[in-house]
Specification:
mainly alpha; flat
Amino acid sequence: MTQAGCWSIDRIAALNLFQILDLAPDAQQLDLAAERFAEHRRDAYGWAARRIHGGMIDRLDAASAPYFERHSDAWGDGFRTAQYEVMRTRPDDLIAPDPGPAPTKGKILRSMIRQSRQA
């Protein structure tokens, strides 16, 4: 892939699209389609993050007046600090679109062993 943000799921989606359309793409066409799917996925993540962030700010604003009337000044300081932290958080920080490195087989096996011991 030519773009680092292109995941295997984007390539699978591109392959499925070509299969539905009964087309046999070459490697360049497949890469191009996968990059477009990746771009769409990133745009959707950004839209969701902005919507979540805006909703959090709106809920905090709506809740502030009734809560300030019932609680102490120390509580109000904490609430304002929470509001400040939410407002200074960028929407992109809410959803991490980069999954990071894939877990190793050893990590997966250790996780499965822990889960079976807990069960």
